[in-house]
Amino acid sequence: MARKYSDRREYIIKAVQKRRKKVRLMAINYKGGKCEQCGYDRCLESLDFHHTDPTKKDFGISSKGYTRSWNRIRKELDKCIMICANCHREVHAQLAACDRNVTMKSGLSQETLKSKDYGNPELLKSVNFLGSAETLHPLP
Questions:
Q1: Contacts of 117 (CB under 8 A, 6+ apart)
Q2: Where are the domains of the chain?
Q3: Burial group, residue 14, by CB count within 10 angstroms (0-12, 13-18, 19+)
Q4: How many whole angstroms separate alpha carbon 80 and alpha carbon 84?
Q5: pTM score of the predicted model
Q6: pLDDT, tens digit, 9 for 90 and up, residues 105-127
């Protein structure tokens, strides 16, 4: 029985997926296996690679980066920190606030708090946005 293009295609797709998973695990192990800011290590899918200097970024680790050689990936990883998704969002929110010169509170900029319509104007006064565990954050 002759092989069909569709059989070969499926084989290649699965092989690439397998390699990407393997290289991601290698990258996570290389960077220490936990968030460099808060120590989170429960879910590997929640760990991101953040370039500390975007001007020196040759390629994105999580996008198309896993088809490159391990040596190239390792060199790119040396330009990154590994942080959890929550810390990563906070880093980008703080960078955006710095670019706009906006004061941050609990990951939300004052600009965001003023521009969002939460339905009840009294809600912003009643909710503490200082980031304590008991704080209730309204959904956008």
A1: none
A2: 5-101, 103-140
A3: exposed
A4: 13
A5: 0.63
A6: 454 444 444 444 434 444 434 33
Helices (H), the chain: 5-30, 70-77, 85-100, 110-115, 121-126
**Residues whose CB falls within 8 Å of the CB of residue 13, separated by 6 or more in sequence, listed in order:** none
Q: What pLDDT shows up at residue 36?
A: 95
Provide the residue type at 86 as one letter. N
CA distance 56 to 67: 20
Say yes or no to pLDDT of 88 above 80: yes
Q: Are strands 80-84 and 104-105 parallel, antiparallel or unpaired?
A: unpaired
Nearest to 110 by CA among 126, 95, 91, 129: 129
